[in-house]
Amino acid sequence: MSKISISDLELHYSNFNALKNVNLEIPEKEITAYIGPSGCGKSTLLKSLNRMNDLIEGCKITGTVLLDGEDIYRGMDINLLRKRVGMVFQKPNPFPMTIYDNVAFGPRTHGVRSKVKLDEMVEKALRDAAIWDEVKDRLKKNALGMSGGQQQRLCIARALAVQPEVLLMDEPTSALDPISTSRIEDLALELKKEYTIVMVTHNMQQAARISDNTAFFLLGEVVEFDKTEELFSMPKDKRTEDYITGRFG
Ligand SMILES: Nc1ncnc2c1ncn2[C@@H]1O[C@H](COP(=O)(O)OP(=O)(O)OP(=O)(O)O)[C@@H](O)[C@H]1O
User: Fold this and answer.
1) Which residues form the ABC transporter domain (predicted)?
2) For a pocket test of ligand 1, which of 10, 20, 42 has the largest count of ligand atoms closer than 8 A to its C-beta?
């Protein structure tokens, strides 16, 4: 069953047509990867799924994005949408505050005041993000003192703390070393038991390793969308084949 259903989505940044007639069904509790050359619209589509483009002047969107059948662009409260659809960015961006406060930030914003409840939520999020053991004795230390890989897992914990249903990840490992990358990949595989994950990646091996479904983008269009295994072993479109075999741009 589709968690997110994208129909006839068109996006313009002023006069520039960044997404053209995108139709995609994102299955629940699976990892869906977006691949394609730089500038083809992967991040734009990802950000359209929790309305991060709405902030940009001149951005016009038509078509529909349904989350569990509800139109996110018509009538859905944006704060509720962002709670249900969390996001992790390319560069780890912890807030300049303690590890604890980073993770408690979202729940506090949503009105959780009880210390006991907050402690519980912070611990669960840090455990789910596979970083609890590394930080449990330094929760009151500033998050900026952590390594890049730890910071990224903290940002994942921060996103999980508000109990989202979908996690959007925009090249979450591109700033990380191979060991931290592999930890985030293992974590994504673990998280898909509970969450629907959509991930932009420049790394085709990464898409092949961890995603269930892959969409290949070119110049604002989805050229091909299929089960990852199919797309990499038997691409149907010549352009997909050229891209995944490295014969392209
Ligand atoms: N705020 C903006 N205003 C105008 N144009 C934009 C804006 N953001 C992105 N674009 C343009 O839209 C196109 C798609 O950008 P997007 O960031 O979605 O691509 P991408 O596939 O994620 O690229 P990359 O892999 O390099 O991150 C690009 O041509 C980009 O220059």
Assistant:
1) 4-244
2) 42
State the CB neighbour count (10 A cutoff) for residue 226. 18
CA 73 / ligand 1 centre spacing (Å): 21
Q: Which atom of ligand 1 is nearest to the CA of 43?
A: 22
Collect the ranges in the chain with pLDDT lower than 50. none
105 found inside a domain: yes
Q: Please name which of 2, 139, 128 lies closest in space to residue 70, comparing C-alpha atoms.
A: 2
Torsion, Cα 73 74 78 82, to 10 degrees, reads -50
Which pTM value belongs to this model? 0.94
Residue 149, phi then psi, degrees to nearest 5: -65, -40
Ligand 1 midpoint to CA 195 (Å): 26
3-state SS, residue 49: coil
User: Is residue 167 assigned to a domain?
Assistant: yes
**Sign of the CA dihedral with 242 first, then 19, 64, and 70 last:** positive
Which ipTM did the prediction report?
A: 0.96
* Residue 66: C-alpha distances to residues 24, 101, 136, 226 (Å): 11, 32, 38, 20
Q: Which residues line ligand 1 (CB under 6 A)?
A: 13, 16, 18, 36, 38-44, 56, 200
Predicted confidence at residue 55, as pLDDT, reads: 78
In this predicted structure, what is the pLDDT of residue 249? 55
pLDDT tens digit sequence for 1-42 = 799 999 999 999 999 999 999 999 999 999 999 999 999 999
45 CA to centre of ligand 1 in angstroms: 10
The answer to whether residue 203 sits within a structural domain is yes
